[in-house]
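[job 4471] stage=fold_predict status=RUNNING
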Amino acid sequence: MSIHAFIQSIRDRDPVHPSVAEVVICYPGFHTMVLFHPLAHWLYKQNLKTLARLWSQIGRFFTGIEIHPGATIGKNLFIDHGMGVVIGETATVGDNCTIYHGSTLGGKGHSKGGKRHPDVGNDVMIGSGAQVLGNISIGDGARVGANSVVVKDVPAGMSVMGIPAQVICPADKGHCAYGVPEDLTGT
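[job 4471] inference complete, writing C-alpha cells
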C-alpha cells in the first residue's frame, strides 16, 4: 500500500478535502489502516492470535474502530469518523471502500470455523449505523444507506436502504454521503 496514494484517496473522498497533515494527524481511520490493522493481521497470519487481538484492541482503544485481525481489508479503505465501526473476523472488504461511523460488518449465529461475515466488493459505500450481517456479498459499487440492516446479498451497482434493506435505485457513481442518494434527501 502506498501511503501517499492512501492519503490522496481519503482527501478525494472526504467532501471537506482535508490537508495531508490533517489526515495524518486527525483521522482515526487512517491510523487504523496504517498503524494497527496491518500489524494485527500479520500477527494473526503468523498464528500469534492472542498478540494480534491485543494489538487490535490497543488500536480500538485509541481509534474507536474495531477490526478483527482475521479480517481481510483491501487498499484505500476510508473509515470516515470511525467511532463504533466493527469488522468481524471472516469479513473481507475490497479496494477503495468507504465505511462511516457506527457501522458493523458482523456475523449471524454461532457457526464455528466457517464463514460468518460479509464480503464487501470494491468501491462500496456503507452509511453510518448500517448493519451488514452474515455470510452475504455486497457487490462492487453498491451503496448501503445509513442505519440500514442488510441480511441478503446486494447486487453490484445498486443502492439499498431500510430495515431490512431493500434495493431502492441504481447507485450514484459520485459521492453519496452516508450511502443516501441525493434525490432521496430532498436536496
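[job 4471] summary: The longest helix spans residues 28-45.
[job 4471] exit 0
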